[in-house]
Amino acid sequence: MSAPILFITRKWAPASGGMETYSMRLTEALATHAPVETIALRGQDNAMPPTALALLLFPFTVIAAALRRSAPPRVIHLGDMALWPLGLLVLVWPETALVISAHGTDVAYHRRGGVKGRLYGAYLRTGARLLGGRMTVIANSRATRDVTAETGWRRIAVVPLASDFADTGATQAAPSTTILFAGRLVKRKGLSWFVREVLPLLPDSLTLDVAGTVWDASEEAALADPRVRFLGPLPQDELARRFAAALCVIVPNIAPENGEYEGFGLVAPEAAAAGGVVLAASHGGLTDAVLDGETGFLLPTGEAAAWAERIAAVAAWPADERAAWCRTAAQRSRAYYSWPRVAADTFALYEKASAADEAAPDSGAKVWLRRASRLAGAVLLVASLVFVGRHLAAHWPGEVRFPLATLALAGGLYALTHLTTTLGWLGIIRACGHHLPLREGFAISLVSQAAKYIPGNVAHHIGRAALAKQAGLPLRVSTLVLPVEIACVCFAALLVGGFLLSPWITLTCLVALAALLATPARGLALPILAFALGLGLAGVSFALLVEVPQAVPAYPLGWLAGFLLPGAPAGLGVREAALLALLDQAASPEALGGAIIVHRVITAVVDGLVALAAYFAGLASIQRRAANSGPTSGR
Fold first, then answer.
1. Which DSSP string do the residues of 317-338 spell out, in sequence order?
2. Are 493 and 506 in contact (CB under 8 A)?
3. The dihedral of CA 420, 422, 427, 432: what is its sign?
4. CA–CA gap between residue 55 and residue 536 (Å, rounded)
5. 84: Cβ contacts below 8 Å, ≥ 6 apart
6. What is the mean pLDDT of residues 559-568?
7. CA nearest neighbour of 407 among 556, 552, 595
8. Per residue in 28-67, pLDDT tens?
């Protein structure tokens, strides 16, 4: 499926909650505007959120689904702010607009402080720095918009949520004497404050019913008041009936010291839609969850006298006046707080985001990453070359001699790594649902890899994509395969060499690889193993020269350092510096320096010979056939 809207969420049924409802109802309503493809992480069968392992594996599921697409989506919509790293997909889909929803805790967790709060704040600020200029944030209220901006996000629009409650049609036979509170019992929702400060100001004839679940033990004291009756959690139909039957429905939120706030306050439009009289605190997202004077009344936060006065006024309403007000409020609530309106507002923001991205294609992540990578690459490359140069100057190996058989074996083992690398690349293409003939795939891969010696360390990727296009592989497929290949190669390097740093690294990689087999991205397991085999062979090739077993795992780590450094051609300098640091205690400085020099020469010679052989064996015929068939489309 290649629907123009790609909605990605970690909140889905059977789990229950406001974000789950948002994801499911919004995608359903959006489908009336344009086709929607949903990549969702299902909750557990007991209605609880997914496990931590499922969350860790979810990005692999997203990557696998994205690579199966036949065309880039017009819009990527991420379900909450914690998913912002998945927005980096726009780096390979530059024409795709990026949208993310902001709810409450997902943007306000940093306010809690402590180590976790500070780390999460840094996490959000990193996302804002990388994607803030490219991503449009949809906040569920003005309060959520303001909190989102605290961590540096820009381009924030407000789209209030919707309610699924319908008018019950119930009418009160006699004036009710019951006030209703519905929701989780946490401090910020203000139940204890209301019982302590407001209830004593009301006539003894008025009582308070509480429907919900105790989340905060400190709120249980309020339930012990003789005028309070605890109902526990109620099914939706029973809750709707009680909304309509109560004298009023209170949402008395307060501002706790830890900075928590109500992202929206869905109970307010739900109660109004069911025919209840809503009294809500003018705080946080409740200012957008209540249309003051139309669907309910907003009251000053924490002012007990104002609350008591308004409740007395509602109790004094004549029956016909109350019925007329409730009927009008219910109609207004159902019209405004509706999923068709939310979907229409969201779709309009898709259009706006697409237009903004076309007008400013090089903003946000692209500019920042380009500048940062150039600076970091230059600094690290110079530092690495200086480090290697100083080592060789202090420990020049003198006359370097290795038996011819050893050199030939080292070169032969290294040559085999080209086969494993190509098989890994072709395996990723196959996992994405595409295909390249084996001979043509090998010719393209083996020829293009020689371009890694061009400064910039990206020419081999560009060349491979161009050659693959001539062989019939769409350019958009090569563009999507590249980040997946990078991730798989890095994973393989840690799998092979990670235990040299810590056994836990390799153990974690093994567990993750086993878990990968249980996901839709299981097709990536074989490419990872192919890359791991190639890096192991390269490590053995280097170990033959330095003659220490630690060189086998050290080489993949040194290769990884050179691979990740932006701009270093073929990891020049960086790989050598990493090997010197990793093997400093395992081999003599002279032997290590000599092995590093000779192995670099061997790899360069083998790379050139392999590329030359591949060109004459297969690439020339591909180019002749492409020239005879005329130009092909890269879209």
1. S-HHHHHHHHHHHHHHHHHHS-
2. no
3. positive
4. 30
5. 78, 100, 124, 127, 131, 135
6. 71
7. 595
8. 999 999 999 999 998 888 777 888 777 877 887 887 787 7
Q: Which long-range contacts (CB under 8 A, 24 or more apart) does 201-207 make?
A: 201/304, 201/305, 201/307, 201/308, 202/308, 202/311, 202/312, 205/177, 206/177, 206/178, 206/179, 206/247, 206/311, 206/315, 207/177, 207/178, 207/179
Tell me the β-bridge partners of 36: 5
Identify the sign of the CA torsion 542, 546, 552, 556: negative
The amino acid at 372: A
Instruction: Choose among 183, 154, 167, 210: nearest CA to 264.
Output: 183
Q: Omega into 589 within 30° of 0, i.e. cis?
A: no
Give residue 422's identity as a one-letter amino acid code.
Answer: T
Read off the tokens for 528: 């990872």
**Cα gap 284→276, rounded to integer Å:** 21
Q: Give the three-state DSSP class for 423.
A: helix
* Residue 203 reports pLDDT greater than 90: yes
Print burial letters for 227-246: b (CB count within 10 Å at least 16), e (below 16): ebebeeeeeeeebbbbbbbb
> To which residue do tokens 């860790």 refer?
56
Specify the pLDDT at position 340.
94
Strands of the 5-9 sheet, one edge to the other: 36-40, 5-9, 75-78, 97-102, 135-139, 156-158
Q: Where are the beta strands (DSSP E) in 84-201?
A: 97-102, 135-139, 156-158, 178-182
Query: What's residue 526's pLDDT?
Result: 92
Locate 382 and state its tokens. 């110079």
Closest to 470 in 3D by CA, of 448, 491, 485? 448
User: For residue 273, what are the contacts with CB-CB under 8 A and spacing of at least 6?
Assistant: 163, 165, 166, 167, 330, 333, 334, 337
Cα–Cα dist 223/221, whole Å: 5
Would the pLDDT of 180 be above 90? yes
pTM: 0.63
